[in-house]
Design brief:
By secondary structure, this protein is of the alpha/beta class. 42% of the residues lie in helices and 15% in strands. α1 crosses α8. It starts with 13 loop residues before the first strand and ends in an 8-residue tail after the last strand.
Length: 257
């Protein structure tokens, strides 16, 4: 995974990235580290998080399930221990289930809200004091949450996923309003059709891949590094006056009605 064109834009900063063992989270952890940040890279103990970034300077892996009761405190404590503070929180861990509403179980619905919304809310809540302290010292701190273009649209079989991503957008906008007075910006990413671990099985079908690539104005699927660069923009000092914003990074997928 290449992180080319780096400029030290996060030099000296400390970041938490969840869902960091693969896909968008892994790409973002590596790009943040390449830009100079100390990164607490978090993913489930069953994931390859302890080996995914082996040998990568400034990435500290943490095997933790973000949905567990003590996870938020442990994750923020790791940032304070390893970096001495916290500048950036990127809530990226997510799950998706596809089933028509009449076939979608309570367990499927609950799991998507547990990971996509509740875990992000709890980690944001835990991180606010550390982010506020950092913003008081440096003038800024950042929260970025991964939503989806489905936070503004929908598709068959995605009731739970779509509802959870709408909730991520609403959480992000409310946090932006509450935290702005301290110099903490809160934004959310709206990826389109991105080739990640979550979507790989579908996109391995050449016909499905071709359909989704054709829908985008750029005529291709997005990559994790495409998304990492978008997150870097929102996490950088250059984004000081951007908050409560949903950044669409979809290659023009949603230009068509």
């Amino acid at each position: 995974m290449s992180a080319t064109g780096v400029h030290g834009r996060l030099r000296g900063k400390v970041a938490i990235v969840t869902g960091a063992a693969s896909g968008i989270g892994a790409a973002t952890a590596r790009l943040f580290a390449a830009e100079g940040a100390t990164v607490i890279a978090v993913d489930r103990p069953a994931s390859p998080i302890l080996s995914a970034h082996a040998g990568v300077e400034r990435i500290v892996p943490l095997a933790r399930d973000v949905t567990e009761d003590g996870a938020p405190a442990d994750i923020v404590a790791a940032a304070l221990r390893e970096g001495g503070g916290l500048d950036i929180l990127f809530n990226n861990a997510g799950v998706s289930e596809r089933a028509l509403v009449e076939a979608q179980t309570d367990a499927m619905w609950d799991r998507q809200f547990e990971v996509n919304v509740r875990a992000a809310f709890r980690l944001c809540r835990e991180a606010v004091p550390a982010l506020r302290e950092r913003a008081a010292a440096t003038g800024r701190a950042r929260i970025v949450n991964t939503a989806s273009v489905m936070a503004e649209r929908t598709d068959l079989g995605l009731a739970g996923y779509v509802a959870s991503k709408h909730a991520v957008a609403g959480l992000s906008k409310t946090l932006a309003l509450e935290l702005g007075k301290w110099g903490i910006t809160v934004n959310y990413l709206l990826p389109g059709a991105i080739e990640t671990g979550m979507t790989r099985a579908a996109f391995e079908d050449p016909a499905i891949r071709a359909v989704w690539a054709k829908k985008a104005a750029l005529r291709r699927l997005g990559t994790p590094m495409d998304m990492a660069r978008a997150v870097l923009l929102l996490a950088s000092d250059e984004a000081d006056f951007i908050t409560g914003h949903g950044l669409v990074a979809d290659g023009g997928l949603t230009l068509r009605t």
